[in-house]
Structure formats: structure tokens, C-alpha cells
Amino acid sequence: MANEITITKYKDEVTPFLESLLERLPGEADNLxxxxxxxxxxxxxxxxxxxxxxxxxxxxxxxxxxxxxxxIDSSAAHFPFNVLGTSPHWIxxxxxxxxxxxxxxxEHPGTQPNDYPSLAFMDGLGPAENVADEWLNNLLE
Length: 141
Known about the structure:
By secondary structure, the protein is α+β, with helices and mostly antiparallel strands. It has helices spanning 2-47, 55-58, 79-84, 116-139, and strands at residues 60-66, 69-74, 89-97, 101-108.
């Protein structure tokens, strides 16, 4: 019986707060996803190897893919080759070589993997959690 009285007593104070919170939550959650995404985008750009074309950096962007969903990726054609590496292979057309220009090289020696997106993600986790904590504190004020 004592619990019923306590719950009823605070119901009038809590109900408007909860109604307001539920009304604001979808937009606020979308803001959170944007803000966390921006943190990871900044880290990815910071870790991006900058070649002479700057293409990996300039084509790294965040795309809204749905409510509470973002994709951070690079549209540079050579992005997967930088991340995953390549084994030696034949190139039948000219490629751009920094400081040299377009050259036909034939046999490419391959490249080592450079999983800089994973490094950027891991290092961005702490700052992203800080953004989420701040968001939650502001939401509950």
C-alpha cells in the first residue's frame, strides 16, 4: 500500500517528463548518430594515408542510410586495395605514380594491407562514447 501512494504521488511529476522525452527522442537520437558519426569520420580522415592526389581523404564521407544509420566510407576506387592490400599482379593500363605522372608499369609488386579504418575506429571509440554520454546527460536534464 505504501508503494502505491508513493508511485501515485510522483506520477503527476514524472508523466510530463516522460511524455516530453518520448516526443523528443527520435530527433535527439538521430542527432546522436550524426554526432558520433562525425567523430568516427574525423578519425578516419585523420588516419587516411595522404597520397599526392588526396583522393582517399577527399572521397571519405558519411552518408545517411536510414533513421539512426550512417555509412562512413571512401568512394575512391583504390580504397579496398589500400585497406586489404594486393598480391603482385599485372596491370594492363597506365597508373598514376606520385611525382612521376601516368606510367605503364605492367607487373605491379603488390602492396601490404593498411587497415587504417579499424585503427581509426578503435581510437575513436573513447571520444564517441564521450559524445554519447554528454548526449544522454543533456537528454535527461
